[in-house]
Amino acid sequence: MSRVLDILRRDLRLAMRQGVDSLMAVVFFILAVVLFPLGVGPEANILARIAAGVIWVAALLASMLSLERLFQTDYEDGSLELLALSPVALELVVLAKVVAHWLTTGVPLMVAAPVLAILLDMDIAGFAVLIVALGLGTPTMSLIGGVGAALILGARRGGVLLSLLVLPLYIPILIFGVAAVDAAIYDFPVRPHLMILSGLLIGAVALCPWAAAASLRQSLD
């Protein structure tokens, strides 16, 4: 476990040292949400009605921006081979790198989301559920994205291929994330939507590291 934490700390230090990918995701998230009031008009009723969907779609797209480089840098400099040969199971290596990706991408999106919700005039009743839903949905997206990043490792035009692979798998997260916020705003039960998001997260934690590790072994052979 200490070696897994060392890998996590290493990836966090590299992310903080470079900083471009994380900053790019947050800036894209903010710009994408800010553009919607300019496109659909300043009517408060319209903005409030689409706020949850806009924030979730922008968060989904923003989380994908840095996925391509999740394993690519280590693959190019040979670090990935050393990690694969280390005593730590490759599944745990994948999990550590995905957690680092979520901490540097998903968490900043969660922090920025309430501010952007105010911009879109979202009802205050949906703020807490929005943060909780993003807290359940963004790590699931990082885990699924980790599988996609492992599958396209070494491929040309990998970014386009990665989008085609993971976007269909993101749709359930998007649907239930938006539904949870809307349920809170219109005073419907929120728990079923959050339970489904929790189930998706548990399933992703159980399956995605194994699938990503298998893809990485295939790429390294």
Summary keywords:
221 residues, mainly alpha, 9 helices
What is the number of helices? 9
Strand content: under 5%
Main beta sheet: strand number and arrangement?
Answer: none
Shape: elongated
Determine the fraction of residues in helical runs and give it as a percent range: over 70%
Q: Average pLDDT across residues?
A: 87
Structural class: mainly alpha
Radius of gyration (Å): 18 Å
Topology order in helix (H) and strand (E) letters: HHHHHHHHH
Termini Cα gap: 26 Å
Low-confidence stretches: none
How many domains would you count in the coordinates? 1
Total number of strands: 0
SSE layout:
Layout: H1 2-18, H2 20-40, H3 44-64, H4 69-77, H5 79-85, H6 90-119, H7 127-151, H8 158-185, H9 191-220
How would you describe what is shown here?
The protein has 221 residues and is mainly alpha-helical. The chain has one domain (2-220). Helix content is 85%, strand content 0%. The protein is elongated and about 55 Å long. The chain starts with a helix and ends with a helix.
Task: Describe the structure concisely for a colleague.
With 221 residues, the protein is mainly alpha-helical. The chain has helices at residues 2-18, 20-40, 44-64, 69-77, 79-85, 90-119, 127-151, 158-185, 191-220. It contains nine helices and no strands.
